[in-house]
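Aim 2 progress update. The chain analyzed this quarter is reproduced below.
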Amino acid sequence: MHIGPGMTLQALHTLSPDRFDTAPILKRLNTASRSLAELKGVAASIPNQAILINTLTLQEARDSSAIENIVTTQDDLYREDDPATASGSAIKEVLRYRQALQAGFERVSSTGLLTLNTLLDVQQQLESNRAGLRKLPGTALRDNAGRLVYEPPQDAREVARLMGELERFIHDEPPFQADPLVKMALVHHQFESIHPFYDGNGRTGRILNVLYLVKEGLLDIPVLYLSRHIVRTKPDYYRLLQAVRDEDCWEEWVLYMLDAVANTARETIDTVVAIRELLLTIKQQVRSGHKFYSQDLINNLFNHPYTRVEFVQRELGVSRITATKYLDALAADKVLDKVRVGRNNYYINRRLFELLQRNDPNNEA
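Predicted structure tokens:
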């Protein structure tokens, strides 16, 4: 059934949880849950988890933005630090995504809640405006040929009502006896179908996924980047979103999302383990060869795969001359690669950079 103007979306709590107890869903749910639990444990083994938040959320930001045809290179992203000063609109948008994800994570972590206000804040940071929920009719989703694919609710009161229902469903009001990973799939679909904002719905909806996992305690930090799977399977993602609306095909949609969790969890586990091993290798190399070794310096080299003198000054509280001395010594010792781009010198943690490029869908044939 096509959902057009004047029709309401099915309330999630009216779905029967029993319909998600099928053998295929339960089998994939077991695989996804085990992989996610292992990722949570592996991520906790990194002493400074800010390293993972800074590096892996930037990967998620890049992949999620690529789904919306906002394309950047790894090199360009890592040379920048602040969306306010970044060069190029695509880079600004990706950096704003990371900023929005981190802000949402901090709110969910501190409150234990995933509210409409948090989503409004996330969307505001993504789009740099305060437009809020849609108030004017006219929003429609079309394919590349301009054909109407889906028309979300148009009335402002309906949009607000549906988002209120979704917020209550997220917090299990009324109770819905289904696994949190199944609920995540339902929540994501409902959010995208409400399409509550003028812009940024896709990216906000993908941030919603990882924030929901944090809220449910399935992750401690937002390091599962589902967007990588969606980039690889973009036609299936949009086809299955619409199949639920047209044909009530919830099972196929839930299976797709469970596969996304399982596949990206396995890849992320491999990445985190590799980061942990590289962290220990470089820590030992710097400690044994340089008297200026400090944990703050190591953190800097991993928080910023492309670090700069200014970053070391700021994060270590040293003078420009001292920061330059440290970085030049590490470059001479082949810990870092020194590269000049325009008027700036960058000191690249090449081994980390190459590690982060593994499994990049933009590098795959």
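The CA atoms of residues 13 and 173 lie 8 Å apart. Residues 1-7 have pLDDT under 50 and may be disordered. These observations will guide the mutagenesis experiments scheduled for the next reporting period.
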